[in-house]
């Protein structure tokens, strides 16, 4: 009996880990601050395209931090809540998450004018950068095992040296199995 239960559990984990996911609904809320200002929007249905501008109001280096909060929701209830899932210095975050997230999403000269310098961009120079027709292909990313179909609220904040918010962008995404 135990062996059967263990086999079923292992099979379910393999199915969850190997699940292919599509973004079927996405909304974006721009929340400008004193470090970053965004004007980003979605268009299209399948795939959903992301376009707009991101303005860095000053050079951003490892003196500033990025914080990513993730909440999986089920209607009005919060099922999984990971506040500050990632909170790290900006340049360190670019280096750590360049491959596969940034590298597979942003192509300099094609869908953005920001050159990530193969993950070695530091500081991010002050200025306005565009992005056009970005597609979030989650199946190219190395997602954590707990990312399953459902609705997610993701908040990406830029924090100043003292930890105060300097602007953020919030996403609401619905994921379904492919």
UniProtKB/TrEMBL annotation:
Point out the signal peptide segment: 1-19
InterPro entries xref list = DUF1091 (IPR010512), GM2-AP_sf (IPR036846)
Q: What's one Pfam family the UniProt record gives for this protein?
A: DUF1091
Q: What is this protein called?
A: Uncharacterized protein isoform X1
Report the domain of life of the source organism.
Eukaryota
List the coiled-coil residues: none
Cite the entry's keywords alphabetically: Signal
